[in-house]
Design a protein that fits this description.
alpha+beta; eight-stranded mixed β-sheet; TAT_signal; Glyas_Fos-R_dOase_dom; Glyas_Bleomycin-R_OHBP_Dase; signal
C-alpha cells in the first residue's frame, strides 16, 4: 500500500492546523518546557520494566497495541493479554469489563512512553501510524528526544519516541535541558520511504523508556519517588518533575496539571494497575526496601522484589532482574 504522507496528512491526524499547534498539543503532554537510544536507558542502575493496565474491553485495547504500536501478543486469554517484543513483556492488560473509566483529574497514568531503538524506527512507525490513519494528539522535539503522542481506545496516554545521543544532552547543575519545539517531520521522514510503510511490528529493541504519572502533590511525589524509591531529579518546572537513574533524561515524569489535590485512586476503575522499576543490583533493591519499610510505606514481598504503593495508590514493583 502506498500513501500520500504529507505534512497536511500528519497535521490532520494530530487534529492541528500547523506544526506550532501540534507542538503546543505535545507541550500539554510534556508541560511546555520552553527555553541514545534504549541501550542507554536500559543500562542505567534502574530502569522501567513493564506496565500493567486495567481495561474494559480487552480485545479492543490488545488489538490496538498490537496493530498500532506493533507489539506481539505473547499470551491471551479471556481475562488478560501479555504483549511485548523479542520475547520480553512490556505490557500486560487485565480485563475489567465492569470498571468505570478513570477520570483524567485522578492520580494515575499520564502516559506510557515506548522508546524506539533508533530515529529511523520512529520514522518508520510514524509512516505506519499515518498509513492507518491513527489519530495523534501531538508531536514535538524535546531536544533530548523526538516524540509523538496518542491515546489508546480507553484514553490511556501513549508516547512513541526516539532519543538523541546522550552526548547531545545539555546538563547544567544536575538539570537537563529540554524543550517542546516543533518536530522536524521532513527531516525525520527523510530516513525512510514515506510512501511505502514497512513497519510490520515493533523493533526487537523497543522498551518502555519512561513512565509519566498524574499525582496529587508534586512535593509529596518527589519525597516518595526520589527520597524513598531512589530516583534522581533531572528537571522540575511548571507543575512537573522528572527523575531518572544514571543520568538518563527521565525514567519517570510526574505532574499535577490536571490532578492537583487528587486523593486515593479507585482500584475499581480502569487505568494503571502497576509498573515496575528493575535493577540488576541487589544492594539497590535492598536499600529501596529498607527505605520503604522505615518510611511506613505499605510493602508486599514478591518472589523477585517488592511492591510498594505511592501516596495515591499507584503500585510500583521494585524488582531484581
Amino acid at each position: 500500500m502506498t500513501i500520500d504522507l504529507t505534512r497536511r496528512t500528519l497535521l490532520h491526524l494530530a487534529g492541528a492546523t500547523s506544526l506550532a499547534a501540534a507542538a503546543a498539543a505535545a507541550a500539554r503532554a510534556e508541560g511546555n518546557p520552553q527555553g541514545g537510544g534504549p541501550t542507554y536507558a536500559s543500562r542505567t542502575p534502574m530502569r522501567v520494566g513493564m506496565v500493567t493496565l486495567r481495561v474494559k474491553n480487552l480485545d479492543t485495547v490488545a488489538d490496538y497495541y498490537r496493530d498500532v504500536i506493533g507489539l506481539t501478543v505473547m499470551e491471551r486469554s479471556a481475562t488478560a493479554a501479555k504483549l511485548g517484543t523479542a520475547g520480553i513483556t512490556l505490557l500486560v492488560l487485565e480485563a475489567r469489563p465492569d470498571a468505570a473509566i478513570e477520570p483524567r483529574n485522578a492520580a494515575g497514568l499520564y502516559h506510557t512512553a515506548f522508546l524506539t531503538p533508533t530515529r529511523k524506527d520512529l520514522a518508520r512507525w510514524l509512516v505506519h501510524a499515518a498509513s492507518h490513519r491513527v489519530p495523534l494528539t501531538g508531536f514535538a522535539d524535546h531536544l533530548v528526544s523526538e516524540s509523538v503522542y496518542l491515546d489508546d481506545p480507553e484514553g490511556n496516554g501513549i508516547e512513541v519516541y526516539a532519543d538523541r545521543d546522550p552526548s547531545q544532552w545539555q546538563w547544567s547543575e544536575g538539570s537537563v535541558k529540554m524543550a517542546t519545539d516543533e518536530l522536524n517531520i521532513p527531516d525525520l521522514l527523510s530516513l525512510t520511504n514515506p510512501r511505502i510503510p514497512d513497519y510490520a511490528k515493533a523493533p526487537d529493541g523497543m522498551r518502555v523508556g519512561h513512565m509519566h504519572l498524574r499525582v496529587g502533590d508534586l512535593a509529596e511525589a518527589e519525597r516518595f519517588y526520589h527520597g524513598t524509591v531512589g530516583l534522581d531529579p533531572t528537571r522540575k518546572r511548571n507543575g512537573a518533575a522528572f527523575l531518572s537513574s544514571g543520568r538518563y533524561h527521565h525514567h519517570l515524569g510526574m505532574n499535577v496539571w490536571q490532578s492537583q489535590g487528587a486523593g486515593q485512586r479507585d482500584e475499581q476503575t480502569t487505568g494503571l494497575a502497576w509498573f515496575s522499576l528493575v535493577t540488576a543490583k541487589q544492594d539497590i533493591l535492598a536499600a529501596q526496601e529498607e527505605r520503604l519499610r522505615k518510611g511506613g510505606t505499605t510493602v508486599t514481598t514478591l518472589a523477585d522484589g517488592v511492591e510498594a504503593i505511592d501516596p495515591w495508590g499507584t503500585r510500583v514493583r521494585l524488582l531484581k532482574v
